[in-house]
Specification:
The complex is a heterodimer of chains A (517) and B (306). Chain A is built from 20 helices and 15 strands. In chain A, α18 runs antiparallel to α19. Chain B is mainly alpha-helical and 306 residues long. Chain B is flat. The chains are: A alpha/beta (517), B mainly alpha (306).
């Protein structure tokens, strides 16, 4: 080997020289335009969604506006939802220069990226250029999404509360003689129990209809517990309420046992379809119109959305009062990359996106007269060209600025604000568990959960025989160490943030109250 | 089918019993290989309703060609993707075979001074892999392959394994004496290569070309990394995107705040996806007979040495 190198040293020298020249040419630092209307700065924005045909057209129109306003132009790069996480991961690790990207708890993980330093810290920047965001975005978002006191992405202003509602097919309900008043709202398991007579009625009178439709991912979310990992299946939760920081395994609690038993009874009686533990996808089932009741995650005016999608009218019964958790707060956000050459301009743009009605609607719905038509002051109707420009609303900043659609109630956004104000924040909002110290236990536990989850949470398994097995398997997988680590990290967090957190939330609720008056 | 013809028994002929056993074994093997493809085709021509009601069936209870109708409706994107795939496969195979055979020929010659060094360099990527991120950095930041056909062609253009296959092939099939004779007749290095070495080594080169063509045809990963715009997306990547999007949306339906169903509605159904798979697989099957004559020859000639 040594011989080889010596013999070919001249060649090697040339070879290496050539390579270093090549790489040097790659990293010559470009100077970036200052950001004037004549010489605009290009904002590269990785956006979540399927590439849209008319995007270049809309972008051009937006650029005309932005060029004048903040001396910038957009370069939006749409990435397919299924590839988004993988691709952004590569882009971020490779240190590529870009400005903005979509991030959330569920894709392109906000917490992980912020912790590893991929996102630009925003506190100072926001004070300077983002005053509009501070005014419009609900403080629960802005404070809840902080990691160790620093915000790393601008949350989309949308619904902040998590609430599960039972969604009824209105036509069937009206015909049956039952009404929503016959059921018990906001009572957790008891709400489901109170619907059982209706399930029995459906089973008797509509043999082809599934009384209660759920799929294999069906979970039991409640406002009794708030989950450490944000995932109701992973052990580790604290009882909802002030000053409660004792980590327990929620899957083994009285509430859950009651839920398993109710479900199992329903499954045995045929109120839940027998294929539920295998069913991948609830949506396809609902679109067939073959279910009488199903659980759904609620947002204000969701009845209209559902009615549109499933082609039948629905009414809803809330299972519990809305709660604010990390997953909801980090539901959709836009971050500035740490490699962004001009974060100040990016922030100015984000500020506009959250305050400027024209820009927000242009990016959301496209060009007036082409993709949509105005049919009221704040209301629009889609034109046929809308098909070539469909964007996810939550990826584009403040939802409350967007125009209403023909079916929306005129006070839709007021209802959102009301809903958000009624939502109770979890006492561990802003605590982010880092599973790395117990990563092998975490993997083992996830495996065990996957084995039992579908069976227990669709009622197929009898909990009296399977729950002990489940808990035992969890214990073998290292449940004790896992919970201990969760407790340890939570205690440390409480110690550090209790005072500042409590204050900021108290302040936040004051602001919200003022806002609503 | 020579097995069933009546003729004189030859000394090396396989006996009838052995033949039957072999046919059964190979038949089972062939069936196992073919079954999924036939199944795929059957799903693509079954009606969506029968899938919802009975799941996937080998012989569907209701037939329908709606999947293919759907595909013709979205035709333009499909056609575009086809075009990209075919271009990449054809151009890529030519480029790749060109580079690989030149490299392999050089290191197959004992009188090449830096032979050992270049063998060593070619060996490195067979043993170690720099991984995804450095590759991505080099390809996008240094070479600028983002959203260009080069990003689909170049990463697959040189494969160390094929270099060594070809080198060994050149060494075993092209006698040194022949090269010397050509040299004495006054041929330069390039003339020797094109007029003597390539024709002699055609079976080996064709084998490598076939393998490379398959690799290009089936590649979606490079498209995932380097291509963002639909007009440059090859067909396999398009399929992959549809599949990934479906899965993602189903898994994260709640996070998409009620927009999931709208998106799902516009997605191809199960049958349509199967139909796209059929359309994506079938053309490359036709490439096989084209190469087959070399393929068989390559294996026999390569195996016999005098």
């Amino acid at each position: 080997m040594k011989n080889l190198i010596i013999r070919h040293k001249y060649f090697l020298i040339i070879f290496l020289l050539g390579f270093s020249l090549l790489s040097l040419s790659g990293c010559n630092n470009k100077t970036y335009p200052v950001g004037t209307p004549q010489n605009p700065y290009k904002i590269i924005w990785y956006q979540f969604g399927t590439p849209q045909k008319d995007l270049p057209m809309v972008q051009k129109k937006a650029n005309e506006y932005l060029r004048k306003k903040i001396g910038a132009v957009l370069d939006i790069r749409m990435i397919n939802p299924g590839d988004y996480n993988k691709k952004l991961n590569v882009i971020e690790i490779s240190g590529e220069k870009f400005d903005l990207c979509f991030t959330a708890a569920w894709t392109n993980s906000y917490v992980r990226n912020a912790q590893r330093g991929a996102f630009y810290p925003l506190n100072k920047l926001m004070n300077k250029y983002g005053q509009g965001i501070k005014k419009t975005v609900n403080p629960y978002f802005l404070n809840g999404a902080k990691i160790d006191g620093e915000l790393y992405a601008v949350p989309t202003n949308k619904e902040v509360g998590l609430q599960i509602r039972y969604v009824f097919n209105k036509k069937m309900l009206d015909k049956s003689g039952f009404s929503l008043n016959d059921f018990k709202p906001l009572a957790g398991v008891n709400t489901l129990k109170s619907i059982i007579p209706y399930f029995a009625y459906i089973k008797k009178h509509y043999p082809a209809i599934i009384p209660y439709g759920i799929d294999k991912t069906s979970s039991f979310i409640t406002n009794k517990y708030t989950f450490i990992m944000g995932d109701s299946f992973i052990p580790g939760a604290v009882k909802f309420g002030k000053e409660n920081y004792k980590v327990i395994n929620q899957l083994d609690t009285k509430t859950y046992k009651e839920y398993y038993s109710v479900l199992h009874k329903m499954y045995q009686k045929g109120y839940i379809q027998s294929g539920a533990p295998q069913l991948q996808n609830m949506t396809s089932l609902m679109m067939t119109g073959k279910t009488a009741v199903e659980p759904g995650q609620y947002q204000p005016c969701a009845e209209n959305v559902w009615a549109n999608e499933y082609d039948y009218k629905v009414v809803t019964l809330p299972k519990f009062k809305p709660v604010t958790t990390n997953v909801m707060v980090e539901g959709a956000m836009t971050a500035i990359s740490i490699n962004a050459p001009r974060p100040d301009i990016d922030m100015k743009f984000l500020n506009l996106l959250n305050t400027d009605k024209y820009l927000r609607n242009l990016l959301q719905y496209g060009i007036e007269g082409m993709h949509y038509k105005k049919i009221g002051q704040n209301r629009i109707k889609f034109l046929p060209a809308h098909k070539s420009y469909i964007m996810y609303s939550f990826t584009l900043g403040n939802l409350f600025l967007t125009y209403l659609l023909p079916n929306d109630t005129s006070n839709k956004w007021q209802q959102f604000e009301k809903f958000n104000a009624s939502s109770t924040p979890s006492q561990i909002l802003g605590f982010h568990f880092d599973p790395t110290p117990v990563s092998s236990e975490y993997a083992a536990i996830t495996n065990v959960v996957q084995q039992y989850q579908a069976g227990l949470f669709t009622g197929q398994m009898n909990y009296e025989t399977y729950l002990p097995k489940f808990i035992n398997a969890l214990k073998n997988a290292g449940l004790k160490d896992f919970l201990a680590e969760e407790q340890k990290q939570l205690d440390a967090w409480v110690k550090k943030h209790k005072t500042s957190k409590a204050e900021s939330l108290r302040h936040a609720s004051k602001v919200v109250n003022r806002h609503n008056k | 089918m020579p097995f069933f013809k009546k003729r004189k028994k030859q000394p090396l002929e396989i006996s009838k019993k052995t033949n039957v056993v072999l046919i059964i074994i190979l038949g089972i093997f062939a069936f196992v290989c073919l079954y999924p493809i036939v199944f795929l085709f059957m799903i693509s021509i079954s009606s969506e309703n029968s899938i919802v009601l009975h799941g996937y069936q080998f012989i569907p209870s209701m037939f329908s060609l709606s999947a293919y109708h759907y595909i013709f409706k979205i035709g333009s994107q499909l056609l575009q993707s086809y075009l990209i795939t075919i271009t990449v496969t054809v151009v890529g195979t030519i480029v790749s075979v060109f580079i690989t055979s030149l490299y392999a020929y050089a290191i197959s010659r004992d009188d090449f001074k830096y032979k050992k060094l270049f063998v060593f360099i070619a060996l490195i990527p067979m043993l170690f892999n720099a991984g995804l991120v450095p590759c991505y950095m080099v390809n996008t930041q240094l070479l600028g392959f983002r959203n260009s056909l080069l990003g689909l062609i170049m990463p697959l253009a040189l494969n160390s394994l094929y270099i060594f296959i070809l080198r060994t092939y050149f060494r075993t099939t092209v006698p040194k004496a022949l090269i010397e004779a050509a040299r004495i007749d006054g041929a330069g290095e390039f003339r020797i290569f094109y007029k003597i070495v390539v024709p002699l080594a055609m079976p080996g080169i064709a084998t490598v070309a076939l393998l490379t063509a398959f690799a290009y045809w089936g590649d979606w990963y490079n498209a995932l990394l380097y291509i963002d715009i639909p007009s440059l997306t090859p067909i396999q990547a398009m399929l992959m995107q549809i599949q990934n999007n479906m899965q993602f949306i189903v898994q994260n339906a709640s996070a998409l705040s009620g927009q999931a169903a709208t998106v799902l509605k516009n997605m191809p159904t199960d049958t349509a996806r199967m139909a796209i798979v059929i359309l994506a697989t079938v053309p490359i099957i036709f490439a096989y007979p084209f190469f087959q004559k070399y393929f068989v020859k390559g294996l026999t000639i390569g195996g016999v040495k005098d």
